[in-house]
Every structure is written in structure tokens, then in C-alpha cells.
Amino acid sequence: MAERAMSVEGVRRRNLGEVLRLVHEEGAQSRARITAATGLNRSTVADLVGALVDAGLVVEREPDPTRRVGRPSPIVAPSADVVAIAANPEVDALEIGAIALDGTVRARAREEVDHLLTPEETADAIARIVSGWREGTLRDVRMVGVGVAVPGLVRADDGVVRLAPHLGWRDAAVGALIADRVGLPVVVGNDATLGARAEHLFGAAEGHRDVVYLNGGASGIGGGLILDGRVIAGAGGYAGEWGQNTPGILDGADRATPGGVLEDEVSRARLLAALGLSSADDPTLAAALAESSAPGVADEVARQRRILATALANAVNVLNPSAIVLGGFLGMIVATDPEGFDEAVRRHALAAPAEALDIRPAALAEDRLLIGAAEAAFAPLLADPLA
Asked: I need a labelling partner for 382 at 20 to 30 A (CA). Which of 10, 150, 186, 306 fits?
């Protein structure tokens, strides 16, 4: 009997997770739609929703009064008062946000830095910002964990940053440092892999099952890969280091770094230099690129586009994705002429694997990495809401 009771409770907890994940990933749903989506009966759904309401994870609202056909069904929405803390340390700044279960960004901060933050300094800064939020704008919310998006190689087993070359981190247990200071569970992942998951769930890759995602940030180019709807991390969690590949440069005049890798040639720092900027966040850089009429800027953008197009054509030939999503400065340089870039990729790729290809910029803009990091922090809650 005890074993059967445990089995029944296990099924109930899984069903609670299924309902919570549904409203978290797809937004507010009527009870009737939850019933249809889960295949559970109405009374079971009512019980599960009630448990989630009692736990403060969802809220119920009155149904749409304009709906006249059939019996109105209450609307179930994820709570805006349950948040995950998300952080992205970079060479030029630390970005941190509080992302709610309903997808709203409850708080956000960006602190520019004049030196490379150590893991200890990163943990201290996150703890300081979170402490201020706890005492101020987020004093009444429930924080469930911290997700950290790191531009480097992160070991899947324990979240240790094996190497973040641009930050100067090696074998850094940054998650443990943050957990000790903040008092919350911490998940650490590669920034581009987390960005890929965010875009797949909520952004430009939504609805696609085979996706190549490249993220262009201050530390270089990272990538994520989704095949048959699953994020592919590799044997140790290190998959997706597109920026470290040797680029195929068709015209020697386009090479800026002898012997350089892709991220040496296709580079945010080179764009900033062409624009005469020392630093910029993503919206500032995007605006500067859109407004600039300087020939040097246009030439640099065109050079980077040519090299990037060749690299992506190789990815198309090998992986046959239905979507390529480009985040950060990569999306910006493609946006200067999307049709021309699409044609350039197809010109270098085989026709068959490029037939259904859709190339698009990341839809979540500067929030993509924070949303991805928050999803990593939410994962235990979504798996077992009452744990």
C-alpha cells in the first residue's frame, strides 16, 4: 500500500509540473484548454490548479466575459511574484535580472566594469544587487534560484566553468560561490546554449525542431544546437563553440587576423572600433550601426557578413536545420540586409539542406541570455512544483 501511495503521489507531482510548465511556457490558459492539452479529466485539473494556487505558483482569473458559447472556464496564469535571478557576466559588464514565471522582467541591472571580474567579484556583485532587490522592489516576491549564463566551457555535471578565456576563468566553481552568498540554488550554463533554449521556447526558434543558434557577444561567438526539439550539449556539456572554428575565408583580403578563428574575424570589438565606440550595450550598438553612414563601418559590416555566411553554409550542409537564429551583434549585422545575407548563405550551401531554411535574428533581443539563465533556474520547480 505504501508503494502504491508513493506511486500515486509521484504521478500527481508530475501532473502538477505538467500544468505549471504549460502555463509558464504558453501563457495563461483556461482550465478547459489545460484539460484538453494534458488529457486529464476536469476534476483532476481543478485539483491540480488548486494546489498550484495554494502554493502561490499560479493565479486564477475570471473567464473572458465576452465568451458566450458554452460554460465559461476560469483562466489560469503563472504568478508574477515567483522569480528566478539570472546573471550574465561579460568582459565589459555584468547584467542581472529577475525574471518571473509569467515571463515579465521584474528587475534588471547592468553594471559596466573597467577590468575582468573574478568569480569572487562576480558572486559579490550578484549578492549585493539581489540583497538590494530583496529589501526594495522585490521584497514581496519568492526567489526560487539563480541561473548564470557564462561565455565559456561549463561542465554539465557540476556547473564548474572549465574555461572562460575572455574572462580569464579556469576551473571556477562560480555557482558554489554565488550560492554561498545569495542562499539560493544556482545553475551555471554556457551562455549561448541557454540563449538557444530561450529562443526555442519563447523567441525566433519557437515551432522549429532543428535549430542552429549563434550568439555574438563581447566575449566572442558561442552557439547552441537543437535537434529534434532537444538541446544538444555534448558529452561533457561543451558543444556549440562555433567561434573557435577556423573560418573559410574566400577572399584573402577579408582576413583581419592571420591564423585567427571565426570570432577573431567576426567581432563585436571590431564593430565598436569602426564606430569609434569604446563600449556599448546591445540597443546602443544596434542604433549606432543603423544610423552610421561612415564607409569604414559599412565595409567592416560587409566583411564580417561574408565570413559569417560561409560559416553558416557549412552548418547548413552538416546539420540541415530549419532555422538559424542569430543573437547579439550577429543579428545586427544581418539586419542591415537580411535578403542579401540569406542569398549569400544559400549560395555557399547545398540546395537540398537549405530548402526549408529560415534565417532570422533573435526575437528576445538583449533579454535572451537572461531568459535562458532563468529557465535553467526554474527547471527544478517545473519538474516538481511542490518539492
From this structure: 150
Please answer whether residues 96 and 132 qualify as being in contact, where contact means their C-beta atoms are separated by less than 8 angstroms. no
Give yes or no for a contact between 50 and 39, defined as CB atoms under 8 angstroms apart: no
Read off the pLDDT of residues 204-253 as tens digits, 9 standing for 90 and up.
999 999 999 999 999 999 999 999 999 998 998 898 899 999 998 989 99
Buried b (16+ CB within 10 A) or exposed e, 173-188: ebbbbbbebbeeebbb
DSSP state letters, 242-300: GGGSPP--SSGGG-SSTT--HHHHS-HHHHHHHHT-S---HHHHHHHHHH---HHHHHH
- Residue 151's Cβ-side half-sphere holds a number of Cα atoms within 13 Å equal to 28
8 Å CB contact between 218 and 271:
no
Alpha-carbon 71 to chain mean position: 39
Scanning the chain, the segments in alpha helix (DSSP H) are 2-26, 31-38, 42-54, 119-135, 174-182, 191-202, 262-265, 268-275, 282-291, 295-319, 329-335, 338-348, 368-383
Q: What is the pTM of this model?
A: 0.89
